Amino acid sequence: MKQLLLSAIFIISSVLASAQTNCEVFIPTEIGSQWELTNYNAKGKEQGKIKYELIDKKTSGDETTFKVKHSTFDKKGDHQFTGEFVAKCVNGKFHFDMAYLMDGSTMQVYQNMDVDVDATEYEIPNFSDSVGTVLKDGALNVRVGTEGAYLLNLNILVTERKIDTFESITTPAGQFDCLVLSQKVSTKLLMRIQSSTKEWYAKDVGLIRSETYNRKGKLQGYSELTSMTQ
Predict the structure, then answer these.
(1) Is the pTM of the predicted complex or chain greater than 0.85?
(2) Mean pLDDT, 10 residues at a time, over the chain (230 residues)?
(3) CA distance 164 to 180
(4) Long-range Cβ contact pairs of 43-47 (< 8 A, separation 24 or more)
(5) Of 4, 21, 78, 144, whose CB has the highest number of CB atoms within 10 Å?
(6) CATH of the domain at 47
(7) Domain range for residue 217?
(8) How far apart are CA 27 and CA 20, in angstroms?
C-alpha cells in the first residue's frame, strides 16, 4: 500500500513537472532582461518606443509568474507612462494579462490618479498547435475616476483570434522563428474603432512584430523589436 502511494505521488509530480516544462514561454526568462519595441506609422516613420524589463519571476507548483515593467516614450524620446503587467505559464499554457495593451500616450495624463484595470488573459499558443487554431477572446477595461463620473473609460475587445502561419522574420534585433496570430480589435474611448492586427511571436523572446490595419484592411502602423539584452 505504501509503495502504491509513493508511486501515485511520483506520477502526479511527474505530470505537473511535465506540464510546466512543456510550457513555451513568449517572454525573456532572465530577471533583468530588457527589450525594446519601436512604433512606426504606415510610411515607416518612428512614432515612439516601448521599453520593457523583466523585474520578477516566481514559480510555485505548475505555475510560473513573470512581472514586467514597461515604459512608453514618444518620438522625441520624452517619457510618457510607466506601468506593469504579468505573464504566466500555467498547466503548459502561456498568457499575458491584457494590461500589456495599455497605451502609454493615452494613460500619460492619468498616471498619478487612481486607475482601475480589469484585464483578462491573452493566450499565446504553442508552436505545436496547427495553423487555424482558434484562441479565446481577450478584453481590457481601464477606468479612471468614480462610477458615473469617469475621466477615462477605455474598453478593448480582441476577437477572432487564430494562428495564421509560422515564418521566420528579421528585425534590427535579429532573425526569429515566429508563429503569426491574427485578430479583430474593437477599441472604445470616445467612439468605437474597429481594426485588425497581425502579431509575430518567438519563443523566449515574445512579440517581434505587430501590424495594425483599419476596417478596410489598410496598414495604419506597425511595431517591431529593435533591441534586446538578456
Answers:
(1) no
(2) 35 34 87 97 96 95 93 92 90 84 55 66 94 93 69 84 98 97 90 94 97 96 95
(3) 5
(4) 46/75, 47/74, 47/75, 47/221
(5) 144
(6) 2.40.360.20
(7) 2-229
(8) 15
